[in-house]
Each structure stands twice: as structure tokens, then as C-alpha cells.
Design goal:
16% strand; alpha/beta; 5 strands; five-stranded mixed sheet; Nucleotidyltransferase, domain 5
């Protein structure tokens, strides 16, 4: 009798990661495209400046000021009209819940700086120090 020595086949336990990389890159592109759309608010004419990108780890608190100087607090999808005193109280509540909160002001370009300064002072008086202003670039 002739015995043949059979070659043992070794199994390869490897995961093909190329499709996972493709999926990850598609998701990255989707999030990069959608992230500027996440800041909600009322429609205002933003002033044009030489803009730099702001880094935001968490969703910022957006305060809008329309052309009439009225204040709006943007919470998620809701846009709530608010007075300066209410803005101060609600900012204090939000700051107590999250001391790392960032506040972004979005004001119409025709609003006097007095309205913006009052809103900023109200927010800063409760202890919030991370404040930004939304503008558009010269090309927009």
C-alpha cells in the first residue's frame, strides 16, 4: 500500500479591511458635508469678514439677533424668542448643566452693535467664556 502524505491546508483568519475603510471614508464625507448645516437659527444677513473656522467639540448654544434687534435662543430645532433678562437666566441654567458650553452669536449685519454687546454681556455675566460670532466669508 502506498500512503500519500496529504498536505495540511492552513486556514487564513484574516479580515479584509478595504471595504470597511471605504465605508468609513464615505461616512466621514457625509459628516463633513452635514456639519455646517447643524447650526440652526433664524435667517439673518451675516456680516462679511475674513473668516476662520471655529472648532466645536459639542453643539454650541446659538443665539440669533434679527434685523429688528430681537433675540432668539436656538435649542435643537426650536427657535424661541427671548428677552435679554430671559437670555441671562436661561444661559445660567445651561451653564450650570454644562460649564464647557460654547455660545455662538448669529446676528444680522444691520443690527447695531449695542444689541450684540448687550447679549454678549448677559452671557458672560453668568460665567460663559467661550463665545463666538458667526459670519460669512467675502466670497459668500
Amino acid at each position: 500500500m502506498i500512503y500519500r502524505l496529504a498536505k495540511k491546508k492552513t486556514l487564513k483568519a484574516e479580515i479584509n479591511v478595504v471595504p470597511y475603510i471605504d465605508v468609513m471614508l464615505v461616512l466621514l464625507i457625509i459628516f463633513m458635508v452635514l456639519s455646517p448645516l447643524l447650526i440652526q437659527g433664524i435667517e439673518v444677513n451675516l456680516p462679511k469678514t475674513d473668516t476662520t473656522k471655529m472648532t466645536v467639540q459639542n453643539e454650541p448654544l446659538v443665539i440669533s439677533i434679527d434685523e429688528m434687534g430681537k433675540f432668539y435662543l436656538n435649542i435643537g430645532e426650536e427657535v424661541l424668542p427671548i428677552s435679554i433678562d430671559e437670555l441671562k437666566r436661561k444661559s445660567a441654567i445651561i451653564y450650570d448643566a454644562n460649564p464647557e458650553i460654547e455660545v455662538v452669536f448669529q446676528s444680522d449685519k444691520d443690527v447695531t452693535f449695542d444689541s450684540v454687546a448687550k447679549a454678549m454681556a448677559a452671557v458672560q455675566s453668568v460665567g460663559i467664556s467661550k463665545i463666538g460670532i458667526v459670519t460669512t466669508g467675502y466670497g459668500n
